[in-house]
Design a protein that fits this description.
Number of helices: 3
CATH class: Alpha Beta
Bound molecules: zinc ion
Largest sheet: 6 strands, antiparallel
Number of strands: 8
Strand content: 25-35%
Number of domains: 1
Order of helices and strands: EEHHEEEEEEH
Strand order of the largest sheet: 3-4-5-6-8-7
Distance between the termini: 20 Å
């Protein structure tokens, strides 16, 4: 299985040609309007503390893109979920899942339930992700 980085869809063949199906931010907040405030706080927090980026809504999630996607966001019913990459495996109770897509790349998943979760520790992780070479 190959997963397109741009639209998150999976295909049987590597680099299979397709037109990336994008989505809108509003689609992600359908029946989850309550999370918009927390999402906006996350966006402001990253812009202020890490750097500027584009927001791209794709079918699976919302991408934060500088020259590549350095963090993805999923809007859940009662919280938001993010991922970010790092060159080494992090061990921390906030991180509930880690994937290793390549030798020197780990992708970590964590949930943000309140604005208190937007702290210094997260800034340091996101900075690493932001400046990773893709
Ligand atoms: Zn695609």
């Amino acid at each position: 299985m190959w997963k397109c980085d741009k639209c998150c869809r999976s295909f049987a063949k590597n680099n299979q040609s397709h037109s990336c199906r994008t989505s809108t931010l509003d689609e992600h907040f359908q029946n989850k309007e309550d999370q918009r405030d927390l999402f906006n706080s996350y966006i402001d927090f990253v812009r202020e503390n890490v750097g500027d980026f584009k927001i791209e809504a794709v079918s699976c999630c919302i991408h934060l893109v500088n020259t590549f996607t350095f963090s993805a966001v999923w809007i859940l019913k009662d919280k938001i979920r993010i991922d970010f990459a790092s060159p080494e495996k992090l061990s921390n109770t906030r991180i509930f899942k880690t994937e290793q897509p390549s030798a020197n790349r780990y992708v970590h998943y964590l949930d943000i339930e309140t604005k208190d979760n937007l702290n210094e520790e997260l800034i340091n992780w996101l900075k690493q992700a932001y400046y990773l070479k893709s």
